[in-house]
């Protein structure tokens, strides 16, 4: 069997060296103990001994003198008489796979979740590319500078000890209103307790309410609420949002949906209005791909696929899971997927993956009796469609006034990224699809 | 006296020597090849050309004789009986290796057959072998200890200190110098004032030999006599074997910048294995077929060892911190008593701090005949600080052994003794003095349990004084406990009261980990209550020296007493101070500190020694990590000045935290 000749490690920590030259010719007989080739390590060029015997075979593509070679890299073979060399030179040993998920400690992961930072997008500055808390904060600020600045502002100039901060949280005291008595004015535990006892001092027989009326409530801000707050204010502050409204005749849509319903015996799997709208929107986006552009590192990045995030109202707050590859899914598959995601959202079981990577968002408030509204862009996307209630209105068709179903669409887009014309053209396409939905839904 | 000359050699011995040398040679050749193929992850120093020495010496050894060796130790391990597969697997980094993957080429352990370790540090093996020899005196056996070392080791202090100790205490040791004429690339002819090693023995009063290191039969003969001598209690022998390594210093290293190809080629013709073979054939002692059969059989063994190594699993990463400390600590011999029940008693027995330690030592020495004490003036004189007063009369000079002034030597010896069955107490008087022995402490004593995967224990107690006071000046005032606590493997004990000194000393004398027992000199005469009954205090259990609510003070040794005095006076001002004494710096009881900070919200660490990287730094970091939300103020530290300790009283006072400084620090902290 062919014996491989590989690059050895010379010295303590060599990883690569420079191939010098062969000391034997191809086809020449090598005996154990012969010097076989010259390799330049960390210190000097050195002759490398062969521990094996055989006929030297140097495959095509083997390193040439002067080439940098990796420790362990194959240089050639020693063959038995009459043995043929292996077919080809195997690829160099690949460096250990580096395309791993970002390395980050638990505290940093937690922080990233809280600040809604996608760790995969963060460039780690720690050892081995490890992502630090500072990296996450920086990324969060880059994502949402306004929100970050906002949260910094609030406590700027106020020092509070960690213990006092903890006690304030426990006693539900807003410490930003308190004057500290510590050296340098730091708020200390005693300050919080003093404030708490003032608030809870009996006043008109009430306890615990303080200046607040006793039917008021103060709820802890959940991490999700914080995230939503940050994202919303970032979007509000960062984008140049413009909303276009239009009313679309949805009569055929309603008919179609009625047919779906009539044809199916179980509720299970009947596509809803939203499913149809998601599908039609995705098709319209296919015609206007630029509407998905995202502002990224000074360039406009246009996603090649269409992944649509759908707003879902849950007890915890608004969540926007993503339906992937919408154009590739049949309407029935879409319906199943939407239902699955909605259930998971309501159960609080969505994974980060399921909420990431959307290229466009649809927010449908039709079920809540809302006619029209101005949705806020879901960063880093650049446009969002708001869908209102489908309602019956008297509409002039030709010469007559007829009862028609109408739905209003509100497209908010980031004017930094798009101008009004393209946005309006997208909306126009979507209108056409909705008014004549049948042909677009056959696959 | 019977001697094995080349002519009288019997067939069994001859084939045994031949087999040992073949095993070493073939195994080394496999390892060199494996190194080239990337199977060996680190350094690999082969023994090719020097096989005669280990083979000839080890042929005389029993399994309970011990060998301490060097970085070039594969041959010693194999000759002592280590199966090649365990050596190969170790170099391949596998869990089936002799050190379970913790050691590699330079850290080979198999205490079960007396292979007490190879070492990546040149020369300590000499001291450790002396320790083995000392153990065998204490244990009253006829075992011997052997050190193998290179010519590089003989210009190192360990050689000098070791030979001297071996001589004056008549130790059953064999010191084998493998003079291969180079230390890495430095010729022995350059680094030694005289060309031979063997004759140096005369200066120490022990026999010395200068042998042809490639003549296995000659070495076999001389080593046999030396070992018999040692067994008879007649003391140590130095044997120099002049030889040559015919491969590079380490695999992958260049070889011809300091010697020529011709030199190497010429020495290859003096191959000790070929030489024995020729001799055996010539004299008709063993036939060629028999020798060939041995070679073939060894070839199969080595091939199998290689397969075994390659097929063995790598150790699991979770095991990485196993064996830093003894995994199955011996149960305490006396009841555990972590709190002094007499703390507030008024009519209880009071003794001094130094008396408390003495009581612990004498109780344990009475119980355990394997305990011996070494130090300067600890014999008849009873110790500079009366630490061993009267014990010499009870236990004699072997168990209370006065030493020459060779701290590195007797600390290194202590390590070797602890590895081989006795329990040394090294009384070094002042902690400053063992700075010469830090290599032995940090590189050997603290690491052996880990490197040997817990198969060798390190029951050694090292005690002596620390602390600033009474113008002792800078060579008699060091504290050093942060230094030792930094390293995995040590227990670092710093008692502040007689009660603690006794209980912790008793624990230390029943513990299988190395203990640095550091006694503040200014506390030696402090008196305190100590129960009549025997007891031990666990390591890693802090004591709350005073309870309080406003601020936590963590202090140690003398600073405990100073902090308590300040706490007492501040109580009058309405500031309630909690004082915590960790008692052991490693392990450090952070739980007690965290609980206290949870209560008080404020933390001050008062520590006599330097601030950077100190106890305070450690406690502060842990509290900041684990109790951040409990802190109502920044953590504060009060440390000795960052300067060597000066002599003049006015200067000396300025380097230690004073009561005034402690008081002020507490007041400021409360106002934070
Ligand atoms: C205390 C110490 N200093 C330096 C080294 C680096 N070193 C490793 S081997 C070696 C040469 C040792 O020469 P020698 O004792 O003659 O043994 P040989 O390698 O020749 O067998 C040196 C300097 C070391 N391991 N330990
Ligand atoms: Mg040498």
Spell out the blueprint of helices and strands:
The complex is a heterodimer of chains A (443) and B (672).
Chain A (H helix, E strand, L loop, with lengths): L2 E4 L9 E7 L6 E2 L4 E6 L4 E5 L4 E4 L10 E3 L3 E6 L26 H9 L18 H11 L1 H11 L6 H10 L17 H12 L22 H16 L2 E9 L1 H13 L9 H15 L6 E3 L2 E3 L6 E3 L1 E2 L4 E2 L2 E2 L7 H16 L13 E5 L18 E15 L2 E15 L5 H16 L8
Parallel strand pairs in A: 12-16, 16-17
Antiparallel strand pairs in A: 1-8, 2-4, 2-7, 3-6, 4-5, 6-8, 9-18, 10-11, 12-15, 13-14, 17-18
Chain B lengths: L10 H26 L14 H8 L7 E3 L5 H6 L4 H8 L32 H16 L5 E6 L6 H12 L4 E7 L2 E2 L2 E2 H4 L9 H4 L3 E5 L3 H16 L5 E6 L18 H8 L3 H11 L5 H24 L38 E3 H15 L3 E5 L15 H9 E3 L4 H13 L3 E8 L7 H8 L2 H4 L9 E6 L14 H5 L5 E3 L4 H11 L6 E6 L6 E3 L13 E4 L4 E5 L2 H14 L5 E5 L2 E3 L3 H11 L2 E8 L4 H12 L9 E5 L8 H7 L3 H13 L1
Helix pairs in contact in B: 1-2, 1-11, 1-12, 2-9, 4-12, 5-6, 5-15, 6-15, 13-19, 15-16, 20-24, 21-22
The complex binds thiamine diphosphate and magnesium ion.
The site of magnesium ion has 6 residues of chain B, from strand 4.
